[in-house]
Specification:
The chain has 433 residues and is α+β, with helices and mostly antiparallel strands. It has nine helices and twelve strands. The structure holds adenosine-5'-diphosphate and magnesium ion.
């Protein structure tokens, strides 16, 4: 048995339709056949009535139901004579009989005229069956035509009825893993309601569980920041003290380790906060102002390493978003470009307005990302084939989530122009004005 409900319904209904059609067809055929046989009997009787008064008394073929009906009128004369067939005919009573003529079964009507002469009207059974069969088969035509039509209509109706289920499955199929919105229950047929309610309940529980986990990460990162800050202060307090030469190096290593850890915790917290369903802050943010502030912030670091950080274009465009989150997007991208570009390289920042969208583009002259790793670059903690510097691997995940949250997209690609290496990050956001 097929496991598809649709298949089962269709098989079942097809069986019913075909069986009903077959039974109905058989009955209709039999009735029509018998009816046609009786009609031919009555034709024989009518011919008999005509022959009673006929003036020409000789055996002859008679046109009957149709030209090929092969009805014959046989004059038997007053006494039995002629062939064995004729003599046997004589012995029959008046009326309709099943007899044999020339070795073939035939239907015969015998009559006796008032003057004592007898005659028979005969018709071969074969031709009678053929005519009856021909007539009966015609009653089958409408039924035979109806069955395919019914099957087609059934298939259409079943297909239509199951469309909501198919549509639901398709909707779930193309969903992103983190899309936990409820399935629309209002438009679904009532049979699907309990099922939908269960799925929606499950989605809700998953959402709650994920929210709980994110909150845990956010809380943990937040809680860890305080002791790390305290430890950092303790290390700073060691600075003015006299210490043997080797100890100062170790103190510096300790301090930079702690600042890395703090940075990691900050990024973790930022990522977790992005995921939390916190109320969205949305205000009109002048993108070029934010980018300029970030670039100014990073200029010192860039010039220290001889990296030429500048603008190719800074059109005035604003987006509707949280300014802190936007600053985090820009900072992570520009910082990456500056950090991963070797000394003496260049980083170009451009802000454009393009058909209702704000475009932020950052190009650097660094090594880019190996093509097979470019897919994974947005994964949390992913830091490339040979991690360098003191990053956390969370920067681009944060960027991606923020951008998605405000209805935008981010694309990162290696520059392919000849004589040029580097990476290009392009952020697109809906412009606010
Ligand atoms: N402009 C860039 N040029 C080369 N590699 C980059 C660039 N930006 C990002 N990457 C690679 O992507 C990885 C992930 O970046 P990110 O998420 O910002 O983490 P982090 O910078 O903390 O390592 C980096 O470790 C680096 O390998
Ligand atoms: Mg980074």
């Amino acid at each position: 048995m097929t496991r598809s409900l649709r298949g089962r319904l269709f098989t079942g209904l097809t069986a019913i339709i075909v069986l009903t059609g077959a039974a109905g067809g058989t009955l209709a055929y039999l009735w029509a056949y018998n009816e046609a046989i009786e009609m031919q009997d009555s034709v024989l009787t009518q011919i008999g009535a005509f022959a009673m008064n006929a003036s020409t008394r000789q055996s002859q073929p008679v046109g009957g139901v149709d030209a090929e009906s092969e009805v014959v009128l046989l004059e038997l004369g007053p006494i039995p004579r002629g062939s064995a067939d004729d003599r046997r005919l004589w012995s029959l009573h008046d009326g309709l009989h099943n007899d044999v003529r020339q070795g073939r079964p035939a239907r015969v009507l015998l009559r006796t005229r008032p003057d004592g002469s007898r005659f028979a009207v005969a018709q071969g059974d074969e031709i009678r069956s053929e005519i009856a069969g021909d007539m009966a088969i015609r009653t089958l035509l409408p039924i035979a035509a109806l069955i395919p039509c019914l099957l087609l209509v059934t298939a259409l109706v079943i297909g239509r009825s199951f469309r909501p289920v198919v549509r639901l499955a398709e909707e779930l199929d193309v969903r992103r893993a983190d899309d936990l919105r409820m399935l629309p229950a209002e438009s679904a047929p009532s049979e699907l309601q309990p099922f939908l309610a269960s799925i929606n309940g499950l989605l809700e529980r998953i959402r709650a569980m994920m929210e709980q986990q994110r909150r845990f990460v956010a809380d943990a990162a937040h809680e860890l920041r305080t002791p790390i800050t305290a430890l950092g202060l303790q290390a700073e307090n060691l600075d003015p003290l006299d210490m043997p030469p080797g100890a100062r190096d170790r103190l510096e290593a300790l301090k930079s380790g702690m600042s890395r850890t703090r940075h990691l915790l900050d990024q973790l917290l930022a990522l977790a906060r992005q995921d939390l369903a916190s109320p969205e802050v949305e205000e009109t943010v002048h993108l070029e102002q934010i980018v300029k502030a970030v670039v100014a912030d990073l200029l010192a670091e860039a010039s220290e390493r001889n990296v030429d950080l500048g603008f190719t274009m800074a059109e005035h465009v604003s987006v509707s978003a949280d300014p802190v989150a936007m600053a985090s997007v820009v900072r992570n991208l520009v910082e990456n470009a500056v950090r991963y570009t070797p000394d003496g390289g260049r980083v170009d920042v451009g802000i454009y307005r393009e058909s209702g969208q704000a475009l932020l583009q950052i190009e650097d002259s660094g090594p880019g990302v190996p093509p097979r790793d470019i897919e994974r670059i947005f994964e949390p903690f992913y830091r490339g084939p040979k991690p360098s510097g003191d990053g956390s691997g969370l920067g681009l995940s944060i960027v991606k989530r923020i951008v998605a949250r405000y209805g935008g997209s981010i694309e990162i690609e290696n520059l392919t122009e000849p004589e040029r290496s580097g990476l290009r990050a392009t952020v697109k956001l809906p412009a606010a004005d």
